[in-house]
DNA sequence: CAAAAATTGAGACGGTGTCTCAATTGTGGC
DNA sequence: GCCACAATTGAGACACCGTCTCAATTTTTG
């Protein structure tokens, strides 16, 4: 989970201005749950800074992704969501209720090397997604 | 890669009618490349059966997914794409040119058990996605 | 203080996925 | 082969999403 101070500081350090709109977005990211999408960020952000507009949310998220402070992902739906770049990148998704658990364990590192060899790819990152039914929904 | 005959047969067996529209969609799935999205299926399908409509493509794909003959996935973009349910479920994506290689190797099976234990999930399937730069784009 | 640069909100726009509805079509029973 | 009925269809309406433009505002700089 990102910290307001940290995100804000890095934004400023990268040469971006700390405007109320951007601070509202950052605030939402810090206090809101995980896996927020643009719309959720917009709605929550407007409670903090009512003038906040959709375009600004998109622009701010672009910056945060560019600076590798947040990471975009698609959890089996057409909506882009965001997680802190620091957090675990792997997911356990309940296909019934949508609950998503994030974890870090990863046994894919050997596989990364194999694939790099076989296909000549430079692999930068990877994502594991497990899908099933959670305890409550069984 | 699915076979027309096979998909068509299973559709009929499940109680669905074999209409020209559905056959066109199936034909595209069989002959077209991998990772097709609705729009690509529509365009290719209309070359076979010009009256084919967008709604029918969506409906047919819903059925095929329901019957577990095809599998939907999102490759880091808001567009849903489809792969044969039988094929490999893991991907190597070039972030520069978009080329996607599909493979089957999987070292995640131990991880599946661990996660099932830890979180009480019944895990049905999983997806690995590796992202990097392919030979040509380096 | 003035000019330039960065950022913004509002709204237009094209594309996508969903839905409705009247018209058409495939199928099993005859 | 034909018929009646249920399934299926295409067309278009609709809401929503992501992108873009642009004029207005704010911030920084000289």
Count of helical regions of chain A:
5
CATH C-level class of the largest domain in chain A is: Mainly Alpha
Gross CATH architecture of the largest domain in chain A: Orthogonal Bundle
Strand line-up in the sheet with most strands of chain A: 1-3-2
**Rg of chain A, alpha carbons:** 17 Å
Which chain pair shows the most residues in contact?
A-B, 42 and 42 residues
> In percent, how much strand structure appears in the residues of chain A?
15-25%
Instruction: Tell me the span between the first and last alpha carbons of chain A.
Output: 29 Å
- Oligomeric form: homodimer
The CATH topology of the largest domain in chain A is Arc Repressor Mutant, subunit A
Please indicate the count of domains of chain A: 2
Helical percentage of chain A: 40-55%
Shape of chain A: globular
Based on DSSP secondary structure assignment, what is the total number of beta strands of chain A?
Answer: 6
H/E order of the elements of chain A?
A: HHEHHEEEEHE
| Biggest sheet statistics of chain A | 3 strands, antiparallel
């Amino acid at each position: 989970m990102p910290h307001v101070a940290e995100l804000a500081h890095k934004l400023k350090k990268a040469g971006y201005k700390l405007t109320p709109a951007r601070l509202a977005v950052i605030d939402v990211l810090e206090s809101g749950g995980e896996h927020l999408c643009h719309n959720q960020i917009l709605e929550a952000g407007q409670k903090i800074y009512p003038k906040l507009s959709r375009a600004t949310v998109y622009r701010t998220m672009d910056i945060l992704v560019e600076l590798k402070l947040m990471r975009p992902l698609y959890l089996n739906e057409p909506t882009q969501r965001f997680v802190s770049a620091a957090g675990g990148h792997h997911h356990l998704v309940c296909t019934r209720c949508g609950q998503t658990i994030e974890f870090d364990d990863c046994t894919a590192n050997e596989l990364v090397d194999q694939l790099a060899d076989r296909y000549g790819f430079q692999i930068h990152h990877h994502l594991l997604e497990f899908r099933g039914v959670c305890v409550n929904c069984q």
